[in-house]
Amino acid sequence: MIPWSSQSCESSDCGQESNLQHYQPNSSPSLILNTQHQCIATLKSPNAYISSMVLSGKFFFTGSSDNEICLWCRDLFSSELGQESPVYNMCAPGKGAVKCLLVSSDKIFSAHQDHKIRVWRIDMDETENAKFSHLVTLPKLSDRAMKFLVPKNHVEIRRHKKATWVHHVDSVSSLALSNDESLMYSVSWDRTIKIWRTNDFKCLESISKAHDDAINAIVITIDGCVYTGSADKKIKVWKKHSEETKHCLVATLNGHSFGINALALSTDESQLYSGHSDGAIVVWGRSNYSNMVVSGALLGHRKSILCLAVANDLLCSGSADKTVKIWRPLEGLYSCLVSLEGHNGPVKCLAVTNDHHKPKDSVSSYLIYSGSLDYEMKVWQVVVPNF
Fold first, then answer.
1. Residue 298's closest CA among 270, 340, 261, 329?
2. The pTM is what?
């Protein structure tokens, strides 16, 4: 088990509003001044950094650069007891970082740098002690064997090298679930998108050369619209028009000057956020999947955007400039409420949720979890006034 230590620390004020490209920044100094924030815990690891995280009810999961997956109890971070170690941790097979985590009912999907996707069962006893058990590694052995025996299932992945189409051949960078959780989507630096059936873990479809460079992010809307962001400076939009058809490209969002590292959808899915290598967050207004309009760009980070997370009307962004910024729209324009400073390395992953331990009518409280390449995970409490 990795030893962890816990401590509290304070963060510094942002004191600035967003510079919204093509629009004047929103003037709401009272909103910024009345936003309160503090770091309530810092968890340190001597051996690995947190490379991915996901919330699930009263728990959350983290994946690390040394291939370890940990389960934490969220309530302990909000109590005086603190939390110095995970509730449960487990070292996955293979080598490299856990690039992405995804929770579906009693299962957790993990995407790995070793090109694999692993599926785990989460078992809870009456005392809520947790245990992981490995179910399957994707692609399944039966899938691999059947495809290997048929020559037409082999595709060229680079010059003079072939693999079956069910295989990812580079780091699996991101995962997403369909609204009914019947399908799981994976994207990879190998430039492909693969679609998996979650009841038997069969690979149903592979979109080869979906982008011209590594695919870094994927998000899916309730109606099944799939957005992928890539280092090729493009966002592509995919749609499956019926149960019998395969996914097809319906739109390409061009005009970016830098690669895309992260994507997120607003809670009502009316807006798409894309985080770029130049430190900008582009805001897209969605009228339908083939008609995306740029609303503006949130400019405040000095280096690449590495991760985005959304809760209610808050947008959180983590950057290689070592900060987490909190953005909020007011009458269509965005303000940067606060910049959370305290990490000594790039912020690699984020998760955000409502803090139900501090309910008030006049304010909303949020807990923000940030993992950094400084081998620390911080838990922040941000309290913002309600409109």
1. 329
2. 0.88
